[in-house]
Design a protein that fits this description.
single chain, four-stranded antiparallel β-sheet, 11 strands
Length: 115
Amino acid sequence: VQLVESGGGSVQDGGSLRLSCKASGMILSVFTSDTLGWYRQAPGKERELVATITGGVGRIEQDSVKGRFTISRENTRRTIYLQMNSLKPEDTAVYYCHSASHQLWGQGIQVTVSS
């Protein structure tokens, strides 16, 4: 099983990005019931939990992104998403996908927001 993130990049302050994380090789029934999450790590800071989704219930864990970020999943594609709107320079970080069932991390993807 592998988690592969995509969709990162560089945007201006106020811009939007949608991150995707595909769980390659994961059995569909496991994926459907798995708790998947997005974490991020900014330079010089610890990795922090941004959002999780279990079944169809998504939860934003970081107060600083509430109202701007949304987590969702598409089970048939074994993919979760993180829609990020109204991005700010402080959102700049490497974003990681995580699977609770496999205790597995993706390779991480860079998001850079410039002012």
